[in-house]
Amino acid sequence: MIKFTANFTFAGKNCTTSATQKVNYLDYKQVGDGAKVTGFYGYLEDDEELVIPDKVPKDYVNEIIAGSDINYIDGQAFKNNNIIRKVKMGENIKGFSNESFMGCKNLTEVTIGSNLESLGSDCFANCPNLKSFKTTACGYLYLTNGANPFSGSDNVVAYTPHSVVFQKRLQSVGVKTIGTDKHNYSINWDWSNYYRNCVMHIKCSE
């Protein structure tokens, strides 16, 4: 946010007027049928959250990708950015490239939707104030080179649904995880090809 202040004289009296302009600009690049965020330019208030939208804004300068789903965060897109404190990702985000948020010293909280599939090497490394990594994703999580994406971010806790696969992947590289909900699991085994009219149904609750 930039504030403009002007002093002037009117009818023999000293007057002051001010205006504010929000400057928050994300840059994008086309990737297949979608897009990725390649950089951030602008200012944020102390407690202002950086929101990465689901789609590239329709008024974006590159009309080819305007309106496209935003699926990825590019490598080093936000590296060493000390302005950002909180980030909320759009629901379409699937992955982060290497070092995408590396060295963001003031970053404290990251929120991601349910489509997260991959975290690149050191994508959230050396973020000493990062304490909360929240996601509703619960499928398989690919870690580039099997490395810890949070290396040097020793205070981070990943809040995820109760997904054994997802949580185990993070735990395997030393990330603390906390389950955020409870799920009911249903499994149907159809053995009718081997035993006539035999179907086993199992329902479990955590």
Task: Summarize the model shown.
With 206 residues, this protein is mostly beta strands. It has one helix spanning 164-171; strands spanning 2-10, 13-21, 24-31, 34-42, 49-51, 70-73, 86-88, 95-96, 109-112, 118-119, 132-135, 142-143, 157-160, 176-179, 184-190, 199-205.
Structure, described:
The N and C termini lie far apart (46 Å). The C terminus is likely disordered. 4% of the residues lie in helices and 39% in strands. It has 206 residues and is mainly β. The chain has a 6-stranded mixed β-sheet with strand order 3-4-6-8-10-12, with no helix packed on it. Strands 5-7-9-11-13-14 form a 6-stranded parallel β-sheet, covered by helices on one side. It contains 1 helix and 16 strands. Strand 15 and strand 16 form a beta hairpin.
